[in-house]
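Narrative summary of target 7.
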Amino acid sequence: MITLENRFFSLRSAACFFVETGIIMTSVVASFIMLHGRAGTPVVSMGDVVARAMMITFVCQSCMYLLDLYNFRLFQTIGEMLFALAIAIGVVCIGIGLLSHAIPKFGVASRMYYLSILLASVSLLAWRLLFELYITRLAPRENILIVGTGPVARQIGKEVEKSERLGFRLVGFISQNQQGAGGTIDGTKAVLGDSSRMSEIIEDHKVSKVVVAITERRGEYPIKEMLSLRVAGVPIVEWPGFFEKLSGRIPIDSLAPSFFIFNEGFRKSRFLLMLRRAVSAMVAAVALVFLLPFFLLVAIGIRLDSPGPVFYSQIRVGQNGKKIRIYKFRSMCNDAEQNGDAIWATENDQRITRVGWFLRKSRIDELPQIWNVLLGELEFVGPRPERPEFVETLQAQIPYYALRHTVKPGLTGWAQVMFHYSGTIDESKEKLQYDLFYIKNMSLKLDLLILFHTVKIVLLGRGAR
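Modeled conformation, tokenized:
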């Protein structure tokens, strides 16, 4: 595993992507070499062949990315994987066929076209089956031993089990005392022993890393055993950092305020903030100019669909608790909140208009907020701003919620690409964990990663209500 902005990033995903890039490119070039000089095959240069190979590769792998074929945290059956591959190849076939018909100069000759698709399909299928066999049966795993059996230890155990396809394996738990040894956690993973047997358990189970998940350090914390293991070279990590890297969020229930007070990650350089502001302002200005004709078409659609204004504005809570007014295309009926009470949107909300359903699904309704970015009230990336009515409730019930307001809110954010729409207190609590991760690790690289994932979310219409 490698890390990207303090979060584990799968080497398996990267390796699979680059191998499949080579497979598709090689399939196209090989088809040209095999057919070169044969009667009925147009004469093209190797440079043209490589250009066509790059185009086919880009289209095919974009489809595979959208279909989650590079997300190894998700479990897919062999049938689901084959179906996704078939869709990706099918899109390439249709796309290249339409291009060849519309612009013959940039198309692919029929023989080369069919042979390229055949070679790529067979090769990708064989590769994926072999790669699936490798990661499930043959690949080395990082064996994780968790010290502790409380709620935090259980939460980390579940997160490790979710990441088995990324190369992690939970071997079990260590109890703080002899009374807890010999049982199981949630009826699945065993409590292998107490702290006095840690060295033996680590050797027997070939443990790669020990995660200490004990929140109370008084009395039962195995200091002597931990020191012995550390001196012996056994990797030992505390649970907050490990959980953060593995899940991409910061747990808030069991963290002391000192985590936020003394952690260096929450400090932001002035240069980074000034650079973000300058880039956001320039991009927002250009985007508004180019999107103006599109905005006019959306406005016409809204007015034809239902009576009422084109735009809808709301007061939201911005940086440092400042109230800001954001703008959206109206997606609900004009009297959606008759009594003026703030109401969370729900699944299949009856207040949403026909055009509004499309606008929300595609996130087009949020585009007028680019104006707020230009004004400096929002950034393109950051925690989404909430309504003051909701903020009062959430701050009273969720610890550390006010930390969301230490940075400027954004059009999209880490919580938006990693979590679905939040419409309850519990969902807002989990969403906050992703927002805190972003605030702690904010950087231009992480912003680009979020924008990249946002494209996928928008194209697939995920998480909208």
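DSSP finds 16 helices and twelve strands in the chain.
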